[in-house]
Specification:
This protein has helices spanning 3-11, 17-23, 48-53, and strands at residues 55-61, 64-71, 75-81, 87-97, 103-108, 114-121, 127-129, 149-155, 165-167. The chain has 169 residues and is mainly β. Strands 1-2-3-4-5-6-7-8 form an eight-stranded antiparallel beta barrel.
Length: 169
């Protein structure tokens, strides 16, 4: 099975479906521009949870590995390998509501599409994020279930690798 089909299959039932499909789009000169380099400092009023989120989180869904990069100013990148093996990142926006249990995460895939989901940070420093069953326009899940994706923080860096092709927001 080709890499692009595996990526599509792996993420088809999750938040990442629309994002990874866009990885198969041909990249023009504007899309292949240098990645956006995030600042390494959080907003002054950022909470402890907001600061903990900043960085690179790696998870596996349906056997496929991918990385979320939470960056300052509400920027979020989904990094994965494209069908040609090149590193690609889809730029999105995120917003966290810490006043809810589990905490709410809104991910804006585009100016018109938002996915509402829930997450928690574990005592081991990992993140459980409900991806399965979340799509733009569907109601936010009330809780995390046994199918929640477990992410491990692999880096505090909020900048993308220099050779990453960025698909803009």
């Amino acid at each position: 099975m080709s890499n692009s089909k595996m990526i599509g299959k792996a993420i088809a039932r999750s938040l990442c479906l629309g994002i990874l499909i866009s990885f198969n789009a041909s990249l023009g000169p504007a899309s292949a521009a240098a990645p956006i380099i995030a600042q390494e400092t959080a907003a002054p009023a950022a909470s402890s949870i907001d600061k903990q989120l900043l960085g690179q989180w790696q998870g596996v869904a349906s056997g496929e590995s991918f990385t979320f990069v939470f960056a300052p100013e509400g920027k979020l990148f989904l990094m994965a390998k494209g069908p040609d093996g090149a590193a690609r990142a889809q730029e999105m926006r995120y917003k966290v509501n810490l006043g809810e249990k589990p905490m709410h995460l809104d991910v804006r895939l585009s100016s018109t599409e938002t996915v509402e989901t829930v997450f928690e940070l574990t005592a081991e420093g990992q993140m459980r994020l409900q991806l399965k069953g979340t799509y733009p326009g569907l109601a936010r899940p009330n809780s995390l279930n046994e199918q929640a994706t477990l992410f491990k923080k692999v880096s505090d860096a909020t900048a993308l690798p220099a050779d990453t092709q960025v698909i803009g927001f």
